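Lay summary. Proteins are chains of building blocks that fold into shapes, and those shapes determine what they do. In this project we predict the shape from the chain. Here is one chain we studied, written as its sequence of building blocks.
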Amino acid sequence: MKISTESTLDQKIPKGYRVYQIKGVDGSILARKGGPSAEDIKNKATYEELRNNQKEFGVASMMSKVLRNSLSEGMSEICETYVSGRLTAQFRNIATFEEGKSGTRPLYLSKHGHKLNGFEFNTTAPYEDIFGAKYFVKSGSRKGQVILHFPAFIPETTFKKPKEATNFKINARLVALSDYQYDMGQKVYRAVNKEFHGKYGSYESPMLPLLKIPIEPMTAQVSLDLKELPDEMALFLVMAVSFYRYENGKFQHLSKESGMTIKQVY
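And here is the predicted shape, written in a compact code that computers can read:
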């Protein structure tokens, strides 16, 4: 494979080769056609490690999808284009903290989920950069509860906001994700606590104006409506601040300038 700075239209492509471009690489890539077939990857011993990696990425992809599907519509709009791939890679990394053969290692979010603390869903507007208010997050009286407290703050001077923004909202989701273990008999990964996997609690502030006077303090409880949660799972607190522009009687979500993060994993 080689990279050419010439336009693909000006190149004479050699027989048996193909030219393509990928984001983040200047010029065109010239590569030989072909590669292993799907049947080779599925059955040949030389591709065993690849198959094992695919198993772990498959579980990680499911975890990523469940977390993203738990978000509200407005929160989902904040996610940048390639966030699913970045998030999947972070979940898959959880397997590397356990001993064992790749493709059979457990993914224990209950033990290692904190490795995702601070994950940003929109890297062009990091949550902690745009939301400068001092606030407090603490566990509630039982597992599955989180208390949020925002002391009075002045929105105009607190946020790193878009020039056209007139309003804002604060959102939070507390999402339960199960540990996964490999079933040696069935040769598949299974959620340890499937019935709790993907359950969530939520909080959404009112639509608030971006003024030069302090807003009133806000206290909220985010909780899962479950009496008891097992130990073999983790709770992901996702927090977002959304900016809006009020125009012609409607609020337009400025999603590309809004921020969202995995604030804490419990």
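What the prediction tells us: Confidence is low (pLDDT under 50) at residues 1-10, 22-26.
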